[in-house]
Amino acid sequence: MSDGTVIKVDATWNKVTIDHGPLENLDMPAMTMVFVVADRAMLEDLSEGSKLRFVADRVNGKLTVTEIEMQWTRSRGSAIRRLAQLRRLRNEKARLQQ
């Protein structure tokens, strides 16, 4: 797994921009680049500035994030409040789509 920081999340196109360390399995140095995500659900907890560990690989010729582990750098209370906020936003979005 490689360490990275989320720069941008593009849920419309299933993409995330990550400033990352070396990707040894792809023989790539540290840089900032755009990846497709293997599963749209991976984007749900991501926001700009999120710290993560991830695995990327070539899938159908595209650089794709196949695994993500969030690196919680906030206090436990702050993280719990953020998760509650995300749940409220998802519930509100679902309500509006009905």
Q: Could you explain the architecture of this structure?
A:
The model has no long low-confidence stretch (mean pLDDT 88). Helices cover 22% and strands 41% of the residues. The N and C termini lie far apart (39 Å). With 98 residues, it is an alpha+beta fold. The protein is globular and about 45 Å long. It has one domain: OB fold (Dihydrolipoamide Acetyltransferase, E2P). The protein has one helix at residues 76-97; strands at 2-10, 15-20, 31-37, 51-59, 62-70. A hairpin with a 4-residue loop joins strand 1 (2-10) and strand 2. The chain has a five-stranded mixed β-barrel. This is Copper-binding protein. It holds the Pfam family CusF_Ec.
What's the total count of β strands?
5
CATH architecture: Beta Barrel
List low-confidence stretches. none
Largest beta sheet: what is the strand line-up? 1-2-3-5-4
- The CATH topology assignment is OB fold (Dihydrolipoamide Acetyltransferase, E2P)
Beta-strand content estimate:
35-45%
* End-to-end separation: 39 Å
Q: How much is the average pLDDT?
A: 88
Q: What is the assigned CATH homologous superfamily?
A: Copper binding periplasmic protein CusF
Counted up, domains total 1
The oligomeric state is single chain
Shape: globular
- Structural class of the secondary structure composition? alpha+beta
Helical residue percent band: 10-25%
The CATH class:
Mainly Beta
Largest sheet: 5 strands, mixed, barrel
Gyration radius, in Å:
14 Å
SSE string, helix = H, strand = E?
EEEEEH
Number of helices: 1
Pfam families: CusF_Ec (PF11604)
Protein name: Copper-binding protein
Organism: Seohaeicola nanhaiensis
